[in-house]
Specification:
single chain; 260 residues; mainly alpha; 9 helices; 68% helix; globular
Length: 260
């Protein structure tokens, strides 16, 4: 039993550390926004989704009562994603501000409100936790599908310009840490989404190895609609964050690895 708890502690700490670094990945982009005094060219949806993911996982962890490491990383994610959204909103064009407000209302007000009201008042605690766990797991799985956009772009352009290798490595490491955290905690709602996160992380690194020395195309040859921001959609599973795609999540959780 003591060994079991020690592994939960170790992977919880490691998952928090990796997801923490992934959550900070967009800071250089936001420094550029600050310098240019405009967020034009960026999108707010990765940060809104990461905030929603963090809210879900904190709610789940509070009901579960033995997942403190989910609470710590997702509390930080709520803080940092809120900072990103406020900065984006402050420097964004009027049209983008309206879009951001609509996304916040859809995900963080209406979406979370529906989840909370549909589960909190259920009389049976175990059923409430089970339903909420399924919701968190489904959302984290959806967030981890975000790398498909990057994979498609890399294959189409034969360029890894829009797929930072370091970010892919950290997202993969985060998926591994949160998988084992969920496994030793005996919580498949945490572990299962990170299997997909790990698979996509490995796939991205393989593509990077294949195309990293391929001649770059000029900017005009890329479809600007396919370009992604620096920020992952992770949920670690904790972010499921990650921010990553860069917003990919730790849930997510981080997802999301906000971050599970």
């Amino acid at each position: 039993m003591a060994l079991h708890l020690s592994w939960v502690f170790i992977f919880g700490i490691l998952g928090n550390a990796v997801s923490f670094m992934v959550s900070l990945a967009p800071l250089p982009a936001f420094y550029q926004i600050y310098k240019k005094k405009t967020s034009e060219g960026f999108q707010s949806i990765p940060y809104v989704v990461s905030l929603f993911s963090a809210m879900l996982w904190i709610y789940y962890a509070l009901l579960k009562k033995d997942a403190m490491f989910l609470i710590t990383i997702n509390t930080f994610c709520i803080f940092i994603q809120t900072f990103y959204i406020v900065t984006y909103f402050y420097y964004g064009p009027k049209k983008e501000k309206i879009v951001t407000v609509k996304l916040m209302l859809l995900f963080n007000v209406f979406g979370f409100g529906v989840v909370f009201l549909s589960t909190f008042f259920l009389p049976n605690h175990s059923i409430r936790l089970m339903i909420l766990g399924y919701i968190c797991m489904a959302f984290s799985l959806a967030v981890f599908l975000a790398p498909l956009a990057i994979v498609r772009k890399v294959i189409k352009t034969k360029s890894v310009e829009f797929m930072p290798f370091t970010l892919s490595v950290f997202l993969t490491l985060g998926a591994v840490m949160w998988f084992f955290y969920g496994l030793f905690l005996k919580d498949m709602n945490i572990a299962v989404p990170n299997i997909l996160g790990f698979i996509f992380g490995i796939l991205q690194m393989i593509l990077y190895a294949v195309y990293r020395n391929h001649p770059k195309k000029t900017v005009e040859e890329f479809d600007p609609k396919l370009q992604l921001s620096d920020h992952p959609v992770v949920v670690d599973v904790a972010k499921l964050g990650s921010d990553a795609v860069e917003t990919q999540g730790g849930n997510g959780r981080n997802g999301a690895f906000n971050k599970v």
